Amino acid sequence: MTRLLKAIRLDVSDTKVFPLAAEAGDWVIPGTFAFRAYTDEGLTGKLRQAFVSGFLSLENFGWSTLATPAEISEEERERLLDRLCEHFVEEHGAPSIEAARPVAEAELNDTAEIASELDLNALLAVSREIDEDDGTIRESFHLVTPPDDAPHARIWDVTEDD
């Protein structure tokens, strides 16, 4: 079975910092192509935050700060491929679904490659910047891990009944 990435939300901050937040559990891709027409000066406010640290939802095309790998069925992957093709036509100027398909397929394949190298339940973050010299977008991924000395939060206690 193939893996892709799903949005994960640890708090409500995504709903405050992005133009539109992905829902927890949405399938996501890096989505760097969404910023291809922007210059560094054109990226401000919530859009800049999406550029700097967002994964693109394939459900509502909102943004998520964190992603985690998950198994996906071939049928669900095909649905996402069709959805991304439609998005390329409607929002990014692709001339047809057929023309968009190889690009959408490459986006999903790249995401699957990233997800396949991660343990299930890993937390992945993305960061991007625009190279000042040539305008190239540089993207990098990193695992989010708690510090070694961080205590675990207590979420429940066991007590005896009287």
Structural write-up:
The protein is of the alpha+beta class and 162 residues long. 33% of the residues lie in helices and 22% in strands. It is built from 4 helices and 7 strands, in the order βαβαβββααββ. The chain has helices spanning 13-17, 45-53, 74-92, 97-116; strands at 2-8, 27-29, 55-57, 63-64, 66-72, 124-130, 137-143. The protein has a 5-stranded antiparallel β-sheet with strand order 4-3-2-1-5. It is globular. The relative contact order is 0.19. The mean pLDDT is 90.
- Strand segment tally: 7
What general outline do the C-alpha atoms trace? globular
Q: Which radius of gyration do the C-alpha atoms yield?
A: 18 Å
Strand order in the sheet with the most strands: 4-3-2-1-5
Main sheet makeup: 5 strands, antiparallel
Identify the notable features of this structure and list them briefly.
162 residues, two-stranded antiparallel sheet, five-stranded antiparallel sheet, globular, alpha+beta
